[in-house]
Structures are given as structure tokens and as C-alpha cells.
Structure prediction request, 279 residues.
Amino acid sequence: MAGTNDEAVAAADDALYVLTAVLLTPAQFPSVLGDDYPQACAALDLPPLADGYGLVLGQDGDGSRWTVVIDDVSLVAVAIASWDCGMEYDLSPDERAVVSALPGWPLAVAVAAPGVPAPHDPPAETAGRPALSPPDTDSWGPAQRRLGADEIALQWASWREQIDNAFFSAEGRGKDTGSAPEGRDGTESGGLSSVRRVLAEARAYVDSPPPLGRVRSSFAPGDARTLRADGPGWSIVARTDDIAFVLLDDKPGQVLPVGRGPELPGLLEALDKMAVRPL
Prediction:
């Protein structure tokens, strides 16, 4: 197992109680790990293979947290789809599919395995590297900005209904994530110039393609797509038939809506054409 710590793999493989799993592919990866697929792989010391990986999060018999990386992406995809449908699925990867076993979890997991000690990081001498951990939710930074964009994509309808078309008479105004639309910043706050800068950087992706996974397209109702683009210090979430939302590292907790206008539809169409899509 190239690039793995044999003791760590053995420890994680010893009665691993699987709690959840996620995909790490160009089109679908935990956004807390990076703005694009190569960044996400680098965070886990993995080469950015074209087919990607599956990440299996669980505990061993001592309760230690482990993230087991496997190269059987389809197995993890089937497990996730089954769980999403409320079906049971025994995710038991073949040991030959294991690429590495990493201590800790990169994501927050709200459940624990029954009958074993509470989740904790394995001993450093067994782990062989610092344990993975979820981002600190008490501070704002790139990971929190990307998580905020994830939430908007998942809860698009609830976010969209808070913004009426009259809002865009002052395009670039922002809305605090914890407030109703009347809690807007004025355009003098720099929201308008920030949005223009982000849209310009996103537009540059069309002519100079960014690293794989910076622009992703996924399912949306009707004939639309949900579009996600990330860049240095910013994230965009949009529906190809609707508006966009911008989040910025330098504007903690704020969401900046962007109206359709004359330019956004063409930009979203161009980005969608170059975006990677789930298989």
C-alpha cells in the first residue's frame, strides 16, 4: 500500500465500525478540504487520481477515530445512495482496496459506534501523523466559507425565498447569514466591488481553466443545474436559471446575492459547460 503507514492500516482495519462515508472525486469532495480536487487530495496526502477515492469514517475497537481511504469509488457511491434512501448497506471494503488509513475525521460526525469507548484520536505512535479534525466553527475562514456555500446549495429554496427581485435594484448588497433580508449592508460597504471582482475572476476560468473541481455542476429541478465555483477567498453558488450567491473570506458570515442582469446568465452557462459533473 504505497504511501500508507502499515501500523495505522492494521489498527484501522481491526474491527472498524463504519459510521459514514463520503466521496473524494473531482466532482464531489468534502469542501472543507480545499477549493478544488487537487487541494482536497493534498490535505490527505493523496495523489489526485482521475477516478478519485472513497473516504470511510469509523471507529476501531478502542473507539479511535479513523478515516480509511479506498480506491473502490463505486462501492462508496452505492453505500451513500442506499443510506440516503433509508436502506441498510454493509460497507465492508476489501482490504485490497485500502489506500491508506488516516487518524481522526476531517468532518464532524454526530454519531458514535455502540459498545466501544467514546470517539477519540488514536495514539500518536500508532497514527504516524497528526490526526484529522473538522474546522473550528467559532471562527470564519476558507473552510467555513465553503461550508456556507454547501449549505446554500443544499437549502437553495429557503435562501432564495428570502430575496425578492426588488433587492437587486442595489446589486451587490449583502445579507448576514443570521438575518432576514432587511439586515442588508449598503453598497458603500464594498459588497458591490467585491462581487464584481469575484465575477471577473470566475469569468477568467472560461479562458484559463482552473484546477480540477474548482467549478462543479450538479442536479437541480427542471432543466437547471446547481453550479458551484470556488477561488482564492471566494465561493459562488448559483442555479443556471436563476440568481447567484457569493461568499467571501473577508466578509465573515455574509452572503451577497447577485441578480441575473445582462451578464450573469451567459457566465453561468459558460461555467456549466466547463464544469465537472458527477458520474
